[in-house]
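Each record in this resource describes a single protein on a pair of labelled lines. An example record follows, reproduced without changes.
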Amino acid sequence: MQKPRWKTVGGTLLRVTAVWAVSTLTMLALAGILPDFRLKSGDGDSATQIAITAASGAGAFGVLSALVWPLLVRALLLMPALVLGLLVFVLNGSMLLIALSLIPDGRGAAEPETAVVVAAVMSAASSATSTFLTVRDDGAYRRRLARLAVRRRRRLGEDGGSDESPGTVFLQLDGVGHAVLREALRERENRPPVMPTVAGWLQSTHKVTPWRTDWSSQTGASQLGILHGSNEDVPAFRWYEKKTGEVMVSNRPTSAAVLQRRAAVRARHDGLLTVDGASRGNLFTGGADQLALVLSVAARRGKHNRSRSGYFAYFADPANATRTAVSFLAEVVREICQSTRAKLRRETPRVKRGGLYPFIRAFATVVERDVVVTAVMGDILSGRTAIYADLVAYDEVAHHSGPRSRDARQVLARLDRSIALIAKVAEHAPRDYRIVLLSDHGQSPGETFAGAYGLRLEDLVRAGCGLPVSRRAGRTPSGAEAREAGRAALHRPEKPGVDGDGWCGGREAPADAVSPVGAVDTAVSDPIVLASGNLGLISFPDVPGRMSREQLDARHPALLRTLADHPGVGFVLVRSEAHGAVVLGAHGAEHRLDTGEVLGASPLTVFGPGAESAVRRTAHFRNTPDIMVNSAYDPASGTVHAFEEQIGSHGGLGGEQGHPFLLWPAELTPPVAAGEELVGAERVHQVLRRWLEEADGPQVPEEEAATAPVEVAAAAAPAVPEAPAEAGVPAEPRQTKASDAARTVQDPRWDGAPAAPFTVVSRVVPNKTR
C-alpha cells in the first residue's frame, strides 16, 4: 500500500532535520577542537547563542551546497577530472567561508585552511547521516526508486513497463581472466567467496564460459571488436603506421576516434549500441547516443559533445563530491601503504609504484567507478535498452600488484559490491533487465623483461642493429651476447676500449651509451620499438612499406637471430618474400604460416591451440610492423615477461591473458554450441547482438556506415569524427585506462557503493536516419 503523501513529505522533512542537526553538532564539535574556528563574538556568547550560530552556519552551508555547488561544477566542467576532484575540498571550504560570513554580528570565522577541514568533515557527516537514514528505511529506498521510474514513464506517456522487452546491461570487468574469476567465486579456507554476489548468480541464474582473444589481448582490440564488430588492422595496444608517420595508441582520444571510424566502415554498421544504447567508461561509443567517460569522443568540444559532462551529473551533488574526494585520498594512502609493505617484505616480482601512480590508481579505482556506476544506474532507471560499461579498476591494480595479489582481490571484492548495487537498482526499473558480465582479456604474471635480463627490448634491438646501447645494457649477459652477435655477423673486430665519454665509436650518442662493435655510420633513422604488454613491435620508419625478412637480413644481419635466440623471447614474426608470414624461434626453428611448413620445433606449440591461427591473422594486417616479438612463456608457471613495467601484463600470447570470461543469464541461448570454443572479439560481438535480438531488442542496422573503401578510411588523417550528442546523464572520456606509456584503470570507491540521487533521463528515440 502506498503511503499517504503527508507521510512521505513528513518523512523527508524529518530526514532533512536530522541531517541539519548532525551538521550543527559537527560544527559545534569542530569549533571546540580547532583553534582557528570560532562560533561566537569577541565579547563571548551564551551556549544558546553559540548553538543558534552553529545552526545558522550549518543551514547556510547546506543551502549553498544545494544551490551553488551544481553551478560551480558546471563552470569547471572542462577542467581535468583529476584536478576537479582535488578542488572539491577548496570549493567546499570557500562555500563554508561564505556561509560563515552570512552569520550576523560576525560570530562565525575560520582560517581558510581550517575552513577546508571543517567543510570536508561536515559534508562527510551529513552524507553519512543521509545514507544511513535511507538505508535503514528499505521501504523509503524502494519507494524513491519507484517514484523516479514512474515520473519517467509519465514524461514519455507510457502506462507501464510490464509489456516492454527486457533491457540488457553488459558490465565489462576489465582484465579479469576466467581462471581469476573462478577463484574469486570459490570459498577459500572456510572464508566466503571474494565475489559473493557473482558466486550466487552462478549457482542459480547464470552460466559462465571462457573465450579466447586474438593475438592482441588488450582492451583496444577486444573492445573495438566487441562493440563495433571489427578489430582488423589493430595489431597491438600501440603501433607505428608508416603511411601517416604516427604512433597509434588505443587509449589516445584521436587514435580511438580513428579506430572507431575504421571499424564502422568495415563492419558496415555503427555498433552494438546503435539503437537506444548507452556507453559508459569505454574506449569506444559502440554507436550509442548516451555517453559517459567514452574516450573516442573525449577530444571533442562543443555544446553537445563535452566529454566531461558525465562528471557534472555525479559531482553536482556536493555529498558525492566530498565522499569521492575523501575516498580518493584514502585510496592514495592505501596504495602507498601497500607498496611500502611489498618493499619491506621484499616481494618479487615487483615494479616501482611511486610518482604519480598512487593518484592514477585512485582515479581509476574511485572516481571513474563512481561516475560510471552512477551513470549505469541512471540508464537503468530511465529504461534504456542496451547499456555497456567498463569497470577497469582490477586491471590497473593487477598491472602493478599482480593478478592474484591481495591488493587485486580487494578490488574484486569492491567490484562485486558495485555489481550488487546495480542489480538492486534493476529490481526497481520500469522494465526487466538481464545483466551480462564479461571481460576483454585476462592477465599473465611474471617478472618484466628488463628485470629478468637487465635490458629493455629496445636495447636488444639496438644491439642487434649495431646501434649504441646504454652502458648498463651493454654489461648484461644479454646485451653483451647481442653485441657479440653483431660483431660476428658484420665481421668486425671488437674495439679494445672506450673513450672518456664512455662509448666506443664514430657518431654522436648519449653519454650513457656504448656502441656495439660493428656499428655502422649511416644516415638511416633508428628503429621505433614499442611495447604492448609482452608483445613488442619494431618498425624502421625510413623504409616505406613493410620490410621483408630478406631486407632485414641485408640491412641488419644479426638482428633477427639476436631476437629469436634470446631466452626471454618466445618467437619473432616477419614477412618473407619467398614464404610469406614466417615465425622464427630459437636454434633456427621456423614456422611458415602460409604454407604450413615447419623447420625444427614450431615456436608456437608452447602457446597452445589457436596460437597459429591468431598469429596468421595478424600477420596479414596492413598495419603489422616490420617485426613483431612475443615474449617467452613458461606453461608450468604461466608466466611471461612484459616489455613494460608491469608484473601483470596482457597484449600478446601466453597464459591467462588470452582467456577472459563471459557470464550470462541462463535464459539466453548459449554463446556457442556444446564442445565449441568461443574465439575472437568479433565473434563475441555476434553473440551479444544475438542476445539483444532474442528479447526483441534493438536490431543493429546494417549498411549504416559509409561504404567508402577501407583503404581510404584507414589512410585518413586521425581527425576526430562527429560524435552523437551526449545525454544529461554522465558523459565523459574514459581515461584513462592509461597514459601513452602505460595503461591506467578504474574501480570501486569506498567500502560502500555510489549513493543516490540517481540522474534519470528519458530514453532516446532512435535516429532512423543514421
In short: The mean pLDDT is 78. Residues 5-33 form the longest helix (29 residues).
